[in-house]
Amino acid sequence: QLVAQLRSRGLLPEGRALYFIGDTLHDAEVATEFGATPLLVDHGHQTAERLAATGCRVAESLPAAVRVVI
Length: 70
Description:
The protein has 70 residues and is α/β, with parallel strands linked by helices. The protein is built from 4 helices and 3 strands.
C-alpha cells in the first residue's frame, strides 16, 4: 500500500524503484513486506555472506548503497 500511495501522489514515478537500505536480514524482510527493493549494507550487524544468502543486493558501504539508488 505504501508504494501505491507514493505513486498515486506522484512521489514515486512509475518505473522507479523504492529502495529500503538496511543492514540486517530483518530489514530485507521489512522491505519486501511493503513492496520496496531491499538493498543491504555489509558494514552492519550481519556479515556480507548472511546478507547475500537472502538473494538481495549487498553494497559494501553506505556510500556504495547510495550510488546504487541515485
